[in-house]
Design brief:
2 strands; 1% strand; Growth Hormone, Chain: A; mainly alpha; two-stranded antiparallel sheet; globular
Length: 414
């Protein structure tokens, strides 16, 4: 069914994404400032906020993929795991009731446990939505979806920042945010269940689901290159996630309001740039465009440590948002583009497993660099590594171009 060129599942997916963004913005985006300002977390513990969830994801991903691959319909399982993940927000409300010396660690454990059902729902959603959106509509749809979700995210962050601007150190503020996040999580479940899913019943797919792993994905030329390039980029990207939080809160002394403003500035630019990245990718290629995205992302760490002025940091966040929108859109499109359709679940699962390893190690290395070299040098090292990852995408693009020309020449000569 198509209404105004938007299919039913596309519309429902957008509604689901909107409430999901609000749920995340109400809780997860404020985990670092809550841990530092209220729970007294150390730099190492702040780093674990970024690296612990990927460790849990690493452990859970393969069992999750096996479970999802055996289901003819994945929608109900995804909805259940979303509910369980969001229900953990209610448990976070009670963290302050335990002895202060244990609060930060219990908080981290709960964040880790939250990612068990969260991992299942993420893998399931990626597979589910890739099968619901036609390949020729994928670029336009995700561009529109990401833009709309960013608008909703920006508004929600702005409202939170204004309403809670003088409540940075108040426990009740975060408890209220966690409660509201759970309520929006219930809406996530509702919209997930509204999707129209076609059961997988074909013999070939049934046989595929019984297979633990299809190692032939590593023989695919495009997928191998994508894995290598994407993991290099994600390592350099995620290495400083914890450092950004530490710098903004401990060095720049950003309040809850300024944390919200940083996010709003970043998202405001994303809203207007999603269509640009889609247009450029269609005109050139996802791979070449991502080279320029990675170059732009490389600049952010070095620019950040120039000043602690919150207005300046907002401008840096806005410039970063230009490239973050490209990262969000193009990297996922590259994953789907380079994953053979008949083996897509295995490709997505493998990517998530390897990404989890990188995402666990990278923030820890970032915090270690902070301890050994200081905030400025660690940020400069990150900029260098990010630029190096951009070069990998450029090499990937040139290799693809050469490989495509070779295949074409051979086909013509034969």
């Amino acid at each position: 069914m198509v209404d105004n060129m938007r299919t039913y599942n596309e519309k429902i997916s957008i509604y689901h994404g909107m409430v999901s963004v609000i749920a995340v913005n109400l809780a997860s985006n404020y985990f670092p400032i809550y841990a530092i300002s209220v729970l007294g977390a150390s730099n190492y513990q702040v780093g674990l906020i970024s690296s612990l969830p990927p460790l849990v994801t690493l452990i859970v991903t393969i069992p999750a993929a096996i479970l999802l691959n055996r289901l003819e319909q994945q929608k109900k399982m995804i909805a259940l795991t979303v509910f369980l993940a969001r229900a953990m927000f209610l448990l976070l409300i009670g963290v302050v009731l335990i002895p202060p010396s244990f609060q930060a660690w219990v908080f981290l454990i709960m964040i880790g446990l939250m990612n068990i059902p969260g991992t299942i729902s993420t893998i399931g959603w990626q597979t589910l939505i890739s099968g619901m959106i036609d390949e020729e509509r994928r670029g336009a749809f995700f561009s529109d979806r990401n833009r709309l979700l960013t608008i909703v995210g920006m508004i929600s962050m702005l409202v939170i920042g204004i309403v809670m601007k003088n409540q940075t150190n108040h426990v009740g503020t975060y408890q209220l945010l966690f409660l509201c996040a759970f309520l929006f999580g219930l809406l996530e479940v509702f919209f997930l269940m509204k999707h129209r899913e076609t059961p997988v019943k074909s013999k070939s797919n049934t046989e595929q689901k019984k297979t633990f792993m299809d190692w032939s994905i590593f023989k695919d030329y495009g997928y191998k290159w994508f894995l290598f390039a994407a993991l290099c980029f994600n390592f350099s990207w995620q290495m400083v996630w914890g450092l950004f939080n530490i710098y903004n809160i401990k060095y720049a002394h950003a309040t809850l309001l300024w944390i919200s403003i940083f996010s709003v500035g970043n998202q405001l630019v994303q809203i207007f740039t999603f269509p640009l990245w889609k247009k450029w990718a269609d005109k050139k290629s996802n791979t070449l465009i991502f080279f320029w995205i990675a170059v732009g992302m490389a600049i952010a760490p070095a620019l950040t440590v120039i000043s602690t002025n919150p207005f300046y940091l907002t401008l840096v966040q806005m410039s970063s948002g230009f490239f973050v929108s490209g990262t969000t859109l193009i990297l996922f499109n590259l994953l789907l583009e380079q994953s053979p359709p008949e083996k897509r679940t295995y490709c997505i699962t493998t990517y998530n497993v390897l990404l989890s390893i990188v995402a666990f190690i990278a923030p820890q290395i970032g915090v270690w660099l902070l301890q050994e070299t200081g905030i400025h040098l660690s940020m400069y090292i990150s900029t260098t590594l990010r630029f190096s990852s951009a070069i990998v995408f450029l090499i990937m693009y040139l290799k693809f171009k050469k490989h495509k020309n070779t295949v074409y020449t051979n086909s013509v000569s034969s």
